[in-house]
Design a protein that fits this description.
mainly alpha; 23 helices
Length: 507
């Protein structure tokens, strides 16, 4: 049986690609490729030109929205694979575009992409009613998490309801993309394409970090730093700037380099050619070096932690040899004497008791414990940090710096929210490990392993920093959770197809 046929999952004929192609052909060829169509296009062009001349830039922007925005919206709704690629690329670049200074609502753009994908999902249900993707532990706990996040809207302890509106987008609404991924990613070839896009974006971000490290910031980045004076205190350490690449901040940059490096390291063990393994090894080192430029101590321990999990799940001579070599390299980096500020900051991550900022965080967490114990639903989403200072200034929580994803959940959503968050991570890792040992196809097994390591690393990283709320990490975290289930589903369908083929031949 052909491998492509084995990996392909049939779709409903009523919603097939050929139907969509016929629709486009009917609109652009049958209706417009004639004298009347040419006259219509000419008159439309003249009309738009006249309106732009009369109304100025407003009409020009509106025209761009109509000519580009509407077709894009249609494509995202009708072609979900295109929509998935669009949101993954946009999530990576959105904060970079924001720093450039374009007068563009980047946050609204991401919300719009998610709405269009969700709309396309429900429209698809008219032709292909299938809710099987809900009946698994990860989907159920995500629905519970989303439900509780919306329940926080009526939290009596919340100082501001407006803060909830701004915060729930990145805490709960973004989680809906998990269901988009698990429903629409239906072939191994599409997973390969997504990984290629993921790695290509990471290469761009890593090289951009090298540019910042050795050639300095662009003018618009200097302007952004000047407009955010608080950033200097966080990013300028020991006369050296922490690099943020194309992301919102150094922490987000570091964590994305970590998960990209773990992805490349895990793919090394897959059924690929030696040339690709050499390339992946090089890229893993590139991402690791870009991570060092961020000066984010919380990220430095994540690759060793991911390698430890890799060794546990895939214990054989090859894995033991590679992890052993990498362990020796890490120990050498930690112990070697150096005057380099970047390497020195990396080494300090493995001696947290000597870190003043780490000790200060421990003191803050100890101080806030009585509040968490007395408020099982917390103080409401957006009650701490920047949103707290903006929407509820002067309140007890507004001035509290959470400095941790788990601490923020405990403070804003209470012990109930923290329990749900920990349960979510536990179920994802437990399901991932079970699926990993159940999958038979070597390629899919390797993909599942990569997603386990990524979720595991982000779980650890969510304690010293807020790892799961900023683009693009939040989107790619949902992708990783979805792929843990998708890989098992594709493996079972492939085995079923092979079994049917064997039975057919025997018959």
């Amino acid at each position: 049986m052909n491998t492509a046929d084995a990996n392909k999952i049939p779709r409903e004929a009523s919603y097939s690609l050929s139907v969509k192609q016929r629709v486009w052909k009917m609109i652009f060829i049958e209706k417009l490729k004639n004298p009347l169509g040419y006259i219509f296009l000419m008159l439309a062009t003249l009309g738009i030109s006249f309106l732009i001349a009369e109304l100025g830039p407003i009409m020009a922007v509106l025209t761009m929205v109509i000519m580009i925005g509407l077709p894009m919206a249609y494509a995202i709704i009708v072609f979900p694979e295109f929509g998935i690629i669009t949101i993954l690329v946009s999530a990576y670049l959105v904060m970079w575009v924001d720093k450039i200074g374009l007068s563009f609502p980047t946050g609204t753009l991401m919300d719009a992409l998610q709405v269009l994908l969700i709309l396309g999902f429900f429209l698809k249900q008219k032709y292909d009613k299938n809710w099987d993707f809900i009946s698994n532990p990860i989907s159920i706990i995500i629905l519970v998490w989303i439900g509780y996040s919306f329940l926080e809207a009526i939290n009596p302890q919340a100082e501001s309801k407006v803060a909830w509106i701004f915060t729930v987008r990145t805490v709960a609404v973004v989680m809906l993309t998990y269901f988009i991924f698990i429903y629409h990613i239906r072939t191994v070839s599409f997973i390969r394409l997504l990984f290629k896009i993921w790695i290509a974006l990471s290469v761009f971000a890593a090289l951009y970090s090298f540019k910042q490290e050795y050639f300095g910031f662009f003018g618009f980045e200097k302007q952004w730093l000047a407009n955010n004076p608080s950033a200097e205190g966080l990013y300028f350490i020991n006369n050296h700037w922490r690099k943020f690449s194309i992301f919102s901040d150094p922490v987000t940059s570091a964590y994305n380099m970590v998960i990209s490096s773990l992805l490349c390291i895990t793919l090394l063990f897959g059924p690929i050619s030696k040339g690709k393994k050499v390339l992946l090894g090089f890229l893993a080192v590139l991402f690791f070096m870009a991570m060092l430029h961020t000066g984010t101590r919380g990220a430095f321990v994540l690759i060793p932690a991911g390698l430890a999990m890799l060794l546990v799940l895939r214990l054989n001579k090859k894995t033991l040899l590679l992890t052993g070599i990498l362990a020796v390299a890490f120990i050498g980096l930690i112990k070697m004497p150096t005057s380099n500020e970047t390497l020195g900051r990396f080494q300090s991550a493995f001696y947290p008791s000597n870190d003043a900022s780490f000790n200060l965080r421990k003191m803050n967490q100890k101080r806030i414990q009585p509040y968490i114990q007395l408020h099982p639903m917390g103080g409401g989403l957006g009650s701490t940090g920047a949103w707290g200072e903006r929407f509820s200034p002067g309140s007890y929580l507004a001035s509290f710096p959470p400095d941790s994803g788990y601490v923020r959940v405990a403070v804003e959503m209470g012990s109930i929210g923290l329990l749900l968050m920990c349960t979510l991570i536990f179920i994802v890792l437990k399901t991932g490990i079970q699926n990993y040992f159940a999958i038979q196809d070597p390629e899919l097994k390797n993909y599942c392993l990569a997603m386990i390591l990524i979720v595991f690393a982000l779980n650890i990283g969510n304690y010293p920093q807020e790892a799961l709320v900023q683009y693009p990490t939040n989107i790619y975290f949902c992708l990783a959770m979805a792929l843990i289930n998708i890989t098992l589903k594709l493996d079972r369908e492939k085995n079923d197809n092979l079994l049917q083929t064997v039975n057919g031949k025997q018959a």
